[in-house]
Design a protein that fits this description.
alpha+beta; Aminopeptidase; 8 strands; 24% helix; 38% strand
Length: 165
């Protein structure tokens, strides 16, 4: 049976690409200590938000676009913290800050609604606690389509720009 996608692998790849100078980063608007990059893997937009300690990437939050719903984009969320920085609340604080940045940017682009989702292994309690910081509703139990493993599906719609009457 295949394993579920591990955002920790992406953190390691991003760290290598950053060290090689391949990823152009820019400071975020609301939290300049948070850096971001935008790319289009597979033709779909991905926003990546990173925290660093010196030149070491310590946290990564990715929002990968996966369709549209209710007039707004759906983003799959992935997040990871480097082993050396775990246990300090960095995943939660970076996830909250990254979501605020994404909301701010999309609101400025007159996007009406932002839909975010995460699929987390049912056994990964730490990731579930992190997800609970931005997903107010209880997750739904599912079987992950990629791995066939039991997982929890978190989903939230965030109204950004109310329709004008």
């Amino acid at each position: 049976m295949a394993a579920m996608t591990d955002p920790g692998n992406a953190l390691a790849l991003y760290q290598q690409a950053f060290a090689a100078g391949v990823i152009p980063l820019q400071p975020c608007r609301l939290d300049p200590s948070l850096l971001m990059a935008v790319d289009h893997p597979n033709g779909k937009k991905r926003f990546s938000y990173m925290r660093f300690t010196g030149t070491k990437m310590t946290a990564l939050v990715m929002f990968a676009q996966d369709g549209m719903e209710e007039g707004g984009p759906i983003f799959n969320i992935g997040y990871a913290v480097d082993d050396c920085a775990r246990g300090r609340g960095l995943a939660q604080s970076t996830l909250v800050a990254a979501l605020a940045e994404l909301e701010h940017g999309l609101k400025g682009a007159n996007v009406p609604v932002l839909n975010v989702e995460a699929v987390i292994n049912i056994d990964h309690i730490v990731s579930q606690r992190v997800a609970a910081t931005i997903f107010p509703d209880a997750p739904k139990p599912i079987i992950d389509s990629g791995s066939g493993l039991p997982a929890l599906h978190y989903y939230r719609s965030i109204l950004l720009n109310a329709p004008r009457a």
